[in-house]
Amino acid sequence: MASSLTCAGVIWAFLSFLCAAASCVGFFMPYWLLGSQLEKSVSFGTFRRCSYPVRDESRQMTVMVEQCGRYASFQAIPSAEWRICTVVTGLGCGLLLLVALTALMGCCVSELISRTVGRVAGGIQFLGGKCSCAEGMGV
Length: 139
Description:
Keywords: Membrane, Signal, Transmembrane, Transmembrane helix. The chain is of the alpha+beta class.
C-alpha cells in the first residue's frame, strides 16, 4: 500500500477526518441550545429539536411533545438566521468531509495528492472550517 503523503500528511489526514466527523456529528445533533419550557427540558439545533411545544386543538392548550425530530420543512426552521446557519454549516461539514476522505485515500494510493492538490485541499478545508465556525459566532 503506497502513499503519496509524508508523515505530516498522514497525521493531517487522520486529524482532518476526526475533525470532520466531529463537525458532522455536532451538526446532526439537536443539542446546540439547552433550556426549559413549560417545566420540561428542551434542546434544539439548526434543523432538529427535542421536547417542543405544539398546540392541542382538542384541549385548546399548548402541550410539550417529548421526542426528538427534525423540522417538517425547511421553512419550519424558526428564523431566517437559523435557515442560513443550517445551509452554511451543512456546506462547511460537506467540504470538511470531502477533503478528509480525499486525504485518507491519499494514504492508500500513490501519486493521488501532489503538493498543489494538498495546498488546494488545505484551502478548501480552511473555508469549510470557517463555514462550520461562522454559525457558532451568530453569523
